[in-house]
Amino acid sequence: MSHLGVGYKPGDIVSASYTFKRDKHEDLSFNRNEQLRILNIAKDPNWAHAKNANGETGLIPLNYVKLSGTSSVDLTCYQWFHGRISRAESEKVLAGHPPGSFMIRNSDLFTGDLTLCVVGPPQSLDAHLNAVNGGTNYQVSISVDDLPPTNVQHYHIICKHLNDVTPATSRARDITEVTTHYSLDEYDWFTNLQDLIEYYAVPDSGLVAPLKHPVPDLLRERLKRLRESGWLISRKELVLGDQIGRGEFGEVLRATYKHTDVAVKICKKTACKLAVTYEAALMTNLRHPNLVSFVGLVYEPEDNAIYLVTEYHAQGNLLTYLHSRTRDEVTEKDKLQFSIDACRGLSYLEERGIIHRDIAARNILLSGRPPRIVAKVADFGMARDLTHTTQYPTGHYATGATSPMITSPASTYGRDPLDHVSPYSERQCAYSSESECLDTMHSLSLHDNAAIPIKWSAPEAVRKRQFTIKSDVWSFGILLWEIYSYGRIPYPRMLASQVLPQLKAGYRMKAPEGCPPEIYRLMRQTWNIDPEERPSFATILTELTSLLTVHPVPTVERVLNIRSPSVVRTPVSMSSSGAYVVTLAPRAEIDDDPWFSRSERRRSLSNEHGSLRPTSLERSTTRMISPNPIEF
């Protein structure tokens, strides 16, 4: 066990590495680079009594200071260093990575020390099921929920100064100044962490697995690229207004940026920050009149928050619009144009190999004024770029049943798969080595804790978590049904858990009242159980535009006109990892089952639950499912 106080003694002069604001009366505040004198080590050896140049005294945290003359090591230059994240957050970052993947973070338990996090061999499925089921591991089928979690082990890295190390056991060479040493066992010491990593990269070195695959701090890397490309904006340029929304990620505020109304999504949790920076980097590559425009990102370390800034839409989302208007106000031309607008945006994404994964009326925003209201696809928090997403299998579970191969977009080490040539930039891929690139897959099987809106998702997306452009096509068919039913919840009077079995049995929703047969025919084509038989967005767009024969629609105009920043903005690349979306726990829903008579339903409920349940025809909110809900 190592404490910071071991490396200091009364009379030592220390320099502040960070600014510290006192929490208690006995603490001593100080600014970065301020010189302090250690008076004595406190009862808690991670704190010390110190005096500043003004003669003020108080307690200081020793992890905020270093000895004057001590060489300062900037660990942020290493891709595998993740800074101040918790044990639980580090396990989420490593989820889905192969054995030998590793990262280093600040220690939770030992202030000033570090923690090495290593992915070990996966737990066997039989052993996991045996533990979960209390000694019985038999079951007919295996779901994603049943798969064992990634095996992550955490090792304490002890940090000491040179004069605390026994020379006989030190691996230091030609040391002429006070330096920090690192060790896992207090026997083998290393003058830098890279030497420690190389030492434990060989088999049988004592760890759960040799250190093979460094997992980069994607949040830091994405922010760096956004800054270099001119997409980071100053918090001082934003004037925050009223709250206009809230979700599991945080809150959404209306704001003003350069005299223009914008929408600001505020995220403070680490997992949400990863998702938001991915969303921001993806949006820098997207420019289309039917996609919501990205304005910029605000990152202020002092606020411990990230602000995603996009164009503001006073008309709100399409679902609210349909609910708040009478059927006479929403004309056939309006419904067709909303459908065409959304399809144009999605066809643009299709051309670029990007899947949205959350197509629904609630994620279509409206701008402009009558007679021409423009629909724009929004919310790219679950979107993925298939053409530059690399992945590899992480699940190899031998069972009698067919086991799913779990792959993860988080499993991208050593490269950024979205480094590519953009039509708006001359940037080239930063990784030219072929060995750094894994095979690109256009069918993305996800295990990234992303919540799935069941009633909007294709069967293969719900059952296997496989997402393709064609699964987006299915969701677009549901969007069409929403539009022509004036915002009804899909599969009315049906539990979300009932949808998949009924789809497998061949059920499809009936046409909404008054829906043109040509539109319903398109819906049915998008709901083909075979993804390959579904039409492309380009084909759907051709079919929809062919229906515009009576009333021409005014030209789409840009609503947001943000002045260009002084730095030229270019599209930004990011890894496909870590889009960790906070999931909503499924709430209990009780509804009528449209496929059973009242007596059959009563018998079914009685047999299954032992008692009758009341039923309700109330409209439900979006039902979400997650195989691994994230805990915060």
Number of helices: 13
Overall domain count: 4
For the termini, the CA-CA separation is 28 Å
CATH superfamily placement of the largest domain? Transferase(Phosphotransferase) domain 1
The share of residues in helices is 10-25%
**Residue-averaged pLDDT:** 74
Gross morphology = elongated
Largest sheet, described in full? 5 strands, antiparallel
Structural Rg = 28 Å
Structural class: alpha+beta
Total beta strand runs: 23
Q: What is the CATH architecture term of the largest domain?
A: Orthogonal Bundle
pLDDT under 50 segments (min length 5)? 1-5, 136-147, 164-170, 172-176, 390-447, 554-568, 574-632
CATH class of the largest domain: Mainly Alpha
How large is the share of residues in beta strands?
15-25%
Under CATH, the topology of the largest domain is which? Transferase(Phosphotransferase), domain 1
Task: Give a quick set of tags describing it.
632 residues; disordered N terminus; Tyrosine-protein kinase; tyrosine-protein kinase; elongated; alpha+beta; five-stranded antiparallel beta sheet; Tyr_kinase_cat_dom; 4 domains; SH3 type barrels; SH2 domain; SH3-like_dom_sf
